[in-house]
Amino acid sequence: MGIFSRLAEQKIEEAVRNGELDNLSMAGKKLPVDDLSHIPEDLRMSYRIMKNAGYVPEEVSLRKECLRLHDLLAAARNDGEQEQLRRKLNEKHLRLQMLLEQRGLGSSGAFMQYESRIRERLLEE
């Protein structure tokens, strides 16, 4: 155990003895799972930092944008508007595919196995 781990343990034990941890909002409850298993190991810490700071990965925002454009396309009335939305949707899909391939997420076994279900689920929402 490193020096920082020991210092952290000492501080936690001290806080418990002083009763500083008695009235926590999550006392006695399970902590929410922060599952980053789908993120490559070397990127997990940076993703966690970004998540805690309120940022989302680009692929998440691209997926949301694709869903929004898909809904707009379904609601579009005239051909010009549909064509413009279709072009934007294709651009976003292409960027998302390139990003997934670049990060190795598109070729992972889990992604390949569940890709169609994931896409269906995203389109449902």
From TrEMBL:
> Superkingdom, according to UniProt?
Bacteria
Q: Where is the DnaJ homologue subfamily C member 28 conserved domain?
A: 7-74
The source organism is Paenibacillus ihbetae
Its taxonomic path starts at: Bacteria, Bacillati, Bacillota, Bacilli, Bacillales
**UniProt-recorded name of the protein:** Molecular chaperone DnaJ
Q: Which InterPro entries match?
A: DnaJ_C_subfamily_28, DnaJ_homolog_subfam-C_membr-28
TM stretches of this protein: none
Q: Name one Pfam family in it.
A: DJC28_CD
